[in-house]
Amino acid sequence: MKLISIKRIFYLATSTFILPYFDYCSTLLCYFLKEAIDKLAKRTTITLLNQWPNQKVINKLLCDQEINVEVFNLIC
After folding, report:
1. Membrane spanning segments where (predicted)?
2. CA-closest candidate to residue 58, choices 47, 73, 69
């Protein structure tokens, strides 16, 4: 019984401290192409259009659909 308790404590410490750190750092290692970023932006726009069927919002989103990757230093 004590061995199981020790394993649970170790698992809790691992999942509490190591996994969030890995999740945070893994995004720093990812490299996304400009095409992938544009595809994600377009998919987000489509999702937002389905959520907010307001004409003003639709016009603004369609004007801003092409994102400027240079602003975010994501030049490929």
Report:
1. 12-33
2. 47
